[in-house]
Amino acid sequence: MTSSSRVRPAAVAGRFYPGDAATLQTTVDDELARAQPWAGPVPEALIVPHAGYVYSGPIAATGYATLANARDTIHRVVLLGPAHYVGFEGVGVSSADAFATPLGDVPIDHELRTRVLELPGVQVHDAAHGPEHSLEVHLPFLQRALTEFTLLPLVVGRAPADVVARVLDAVWDGAETLVIVSTDLSHYLDHDTAARRDRTTAANVINGELDDIAPDDACGAYPLRGLLIAARERDLVVELLDLRNSGDTAGPRDRVVGYAAFALVPPNPALGHSAVR
Prior knowledge:
globular; Protocatechuate 4,5-dioxygenase, Chain B; three-stranded mixed β-sheet; 10 helices
């Protein structure tokens, strides 16, 4: 980074995750060590939650643990999440040169940013990025799971699925690129009601049922729908890795938020998988 570089500061360090670098590193490493081992291929994409680490950290770690064999292979991360604070149409990129976390600065991929800004529905939207946690909370996990990478962070507003899919088509470049969609599931239902609803949503994600995934089912529904279109075009299957809610991790059970982790991988006929449809 040069002295003239613009760095987007961490907005939720010390709230959603530890603000102290040593504590944060230990927290992330411990979550990854406790995660269920993954015997499948390195995912081409992940779907992971974005709440405070005490609530969704174990579920997110289940997703990131699948990258253990790709530490030195993945060099680009395309990270999409919903806009919680600023309403807008389309997809927003940041004009910053890096995103900061207590573990250091993550450099922005200028080439990919230039590429997507040529597409309809994509704009620079720093106001949406400034306070947004749906992308930031994933960066410490990525900083510990991968050796070195550049980042294309995309805040997705009210964007049609085909717009998001076109963005992904423009930047999804083989094994060195990992696509991540950040989403939580149901919000503020009781534990058992949430579990039933989230199982239905998980089935819709696995089966690629775009029209049955509403923002009330998944706050990241807009980027999620676009990912599922792009996954179908690549003949990827969606594997459910983890499905829990805050009542299972650290919160009360009368008002919970649902979380899931999914891996998108090539089909394996030996396991009887079918493509996303």
